[in-house]
What does this fold into?
Amino acid sequence: MEKYKNRSIAGKVLAHELDVYKDRSDVIVLALPRGGVPVAFEIAQALHAPLDVFIVRKLGVPQHSELAMGAIAMGDTCVFNDDIITELHISKAAIASVIADEKKELNRREVAYRGNYTFPSLHDKTVILVDDGIATGATIRAAVKALKQLKPTNIVIAVPVADKTMCDHLQLLADRLVCPMRPLYFYAVGAWYEDFSQTEDEEVYNLLNEARIVNMNRAKFIIDVEHPLIIPSADAALDGILYVPKAASGLVIFAHGSGSSRFSSRNQYVAKELQRLKLATLLFDLLTPDEDMIDTKTAQYRFDIDFLARRLVDATNWIVSHPVLNTLPVGYFGASTGGGAALVAAATLPSLIRAVVSRGGRPDLAGESLSFVEAPTMLIVGGHDKTVIELNQQAYAILHCKKKLEIVPGATHLFEEPGKLEAVSRLASEWFKQYLL
It folds into this structure.
């Protein structure tokens, strides 16, 4: 039998065997990390299916970690090899110690690979479970046992190579087994690859992130319906809400300020008004839930404008990669410290950002970036927000682009007074109408 050149080639071979699952909305590919991820990535791309990881850890015999006495999977599922435990007289205390150590590693990988992405629902799904090969079968058995508790319709085990005898057992374990190479004398998984170098955490994260982006780009957004999104950034996954009206002629991305999120009632109000102009809107959280909790107590992130701007740039580059959106002119609507972040991001993406509006913002926090902003910029401030008016005037003097400073009489910082938020919406709509439509 010929060896596989590497895991990527093995994945492409498997994908050909799994072609019957292509373009099916009920299919999801789950990889056993780390080695299963490069294999599964190729399968997911070929089948046009989403990719995620299902984390399982082998329970190695004490002092002989390569010998499996069982495995644990997500959801605290355990599978034991009773013959090995009995033969080697492994105590319950020793087993418990190994389980505790492996749970720590399982949790670490969960955070490292998935970040803030929640595990997908498998109800009524056909799950294609992928690894780079099967030796003892302990990890795959633990994975299947745990997956069955999540009620998928079918479980398909897909591996490039496994021991022939092991394959006979696996065919009884799942609904289907796809394994092109089944040697009678197996030796080890790595023996059947020319390149079996270790897959690192960074590669796993990057492949999962790339798969999410590709899968998002395949998505066909329903017009006039809000779409919840998870937006990949360099160091986090960020929650967002996208709305694309019929015949959209522009896209406005909202950068929320301290203490607010995509659910900000004020920004949602402005977004609704912009949607009436046939502008698509993206409201998303610049902070993860954990970061927001920290920021609420310490204000650690809200004034870190470079940090917030990097997140905004990442979100912008990601959302405009979608075929439905990549031809639309893009504007920013920033609020509070999000106004400063929007201006830094606009200076970073001069050829992409066509207009900026800051509502009750802190454009002064953009610092040196102000002089590099090319997009026409409107600064809107409440008439009673005296300190912020002065800070906006200072920033306004530094801006070299087309610009306008609007002070809404009788309004405080949050524009909570009757009619004041409506005034903000009118001003923003006029600005974006002039420069995006």
The longest strand covers residues 64-73.
